[in-house]
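pipeline/complex-builder :: batch 7 item 3
reading input block
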Amino acid sequence: MSAPPSPFVFRRTDSPQQAAAWDRTRALVTNLRSVYGRAYPRLIGARREPSWLLFEILLPFLTTSAFVFVYRALDAPSEFIGFVVLGGAMTAFWLNILWMMAAQLYWERDQGNLELYFTAPISMMSILFGMAIGGLFMSGTRALVVLIVGATLYGVTFAVDQWLLLLAVFLLTMGALYGLGMVLASFFLLSGREAWHLSQGLQEPVYFVSGLNFPVGRLGLLGALAISTIPLAVGLDAMRQLAFVGSEHVYGVLPAWAEALILLAMAALFISLARWMLRHIERLARVEGKLTMKGT
Amino acid sequence: MSASSRPLAIDARGVRRVYKAKPKPIVALDGVDLQVEPGELFGLLGPNGAGKTTLIKILTTLLLPTSGTAHVFGFNVAHQTGELRRIMNIVSGGEQSGYGLLHVREQLWMFSQFYGLGVREGWHRVEQLIEAVGLTEQRLQKVSSLSTGQRQKLNLARGLLNDPWILFLDEPTLGLDVSAARQTRELVQQWQQALPGRTILLTSHYMAEVDELCDRVAIVDRGRILAIGTSAELKRRVQRESIFLLEVDRLPAGIQALAALPGVLSAVEPTAQDLGGAADRQTVSVKLTLADDAALGGVVAELGRMGASIVALAKSEPTLEDVFVELVGRGFAEREQEADDTDDRASDGGGRGDLLAPADDSATPADGYVSQEPVETAR
């Protein structure tokens, strides 16, 4: 009779050299699996902690509702209600970027995960992509709920001609936003314990210059500046133009197609920059000893 | 390379690591030479601040040496990080990695993905390891609810997910109670013995642990390796004579009769410390110092002539702490206090900014949990 297989023998290889000899496909597949692996806690978390329904949907929806009532009290054109509901839906993504992308690597370091990510045979970009996809799923759910409930409750009528362009703009906005989140994640890690304050400091100003509750075109030069730097501002401006066709109150800063191109450029820029920054961080950490733990 | 031209499991030569700090740089490693053969369970023993963790960080690609070279199974730790990370893993004591809201099996599965295991393959591997480390009852429990001992079993299972050729264990039993520490040591031994060639580098400042587990030990202090050898070899450095604790039912001719025998250097009444508090007033205890073990025969013969019966006979061996004291001139505790004082001075002057090190004053994370427990934010 042969001995039962040992639980301590799994992928038997003849030598360390053989075990280390991965081809490109295996390296790529491992990175893709890592994306899913890192997204998993967020996918699970969305249903394991139902309190998020209160904190992530109901409470922010009250803010959106407050703006709706203000616009109604002022007899503002009906499209403004739609602008606010759309802006309220998009709030979820910026919150997610700040607290679950930008500040995340800092918390990961505290928990000891960052060292394990660095010592695993994967790119840190896979971890960030996983965080982004998991976060996108959670925020997307919240955004969808706010959009559907808000539109139904407040009688928002959308007028869409170019569904495909609208979808493309939304996806590009997500690409640019989460690309920015990846950049901020590295930046916040470098800034150490100031990460918390940075997140707080960026939350409201970005809401304002992105025109979450009003058309960003109304901000004049500041709005134009926001369009050129903040993905949320560009994306929202383009989506409002595409979702409320014919409205004279949209005040689009640039044509939607041009803003789609800006978003594309932003996504490429931010993702490339994030990749560079992660390499920079790892180099900095290894050379200057900043990856080390307290003990020597 | 070893004689058979197989690469050494660890080959560090002249490794030096200096941290920038004020008022002056801290030399964490000062020209470390270390060769570990494949299949060895090698221990690095030293007080806190000796340089053990820095050496592990260098060997696990987290840190570059300021000078010198290091290879793990032939892979250069500075340049061949990709290859090396495929064959190694690391487990640290007190590790809080992962996410508290995940179940034990989910957490392990998540980490399995980082090593390229397929989805089903990953789950299978996870179940195997959960059973092997004894976490079957906790498999559907949230990670945040585990005890310290269970948590360390989970960490160990994580470290074995990819079947590494080399496992780095940094103070793996830190903070564990006696039973959990013993279980951890047993698991480590079982894993290593399951396949030839598996290598473990263990750092610890628990001397008994290193003594029990390791094939060879390096004693480290102030960034230097002071001595390398098997535990027995190291102990022989401080004990040139053989010391026995003898317990007989009676000794009519007195202890001095034994002291006069050939090869017996001294025969004295043992101290309470020698006896470990186990003195029995019905018997007579003698601490014998012999020129070598062969002299024991004469002692036993003489006892026979006296009509005395031997109740117990034990050879007294020095501990690794005795070796450390011999090499450094003071014990672990004093040396650690010294190192703490040095660290305090360094951090008062600016210290080193640890990019990956857990912050001392963890701020409240996004979801409102204090980050003592690993949690994945649910935002």
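note: Residues 23-288 of chain A form one domain.
queue -> next item
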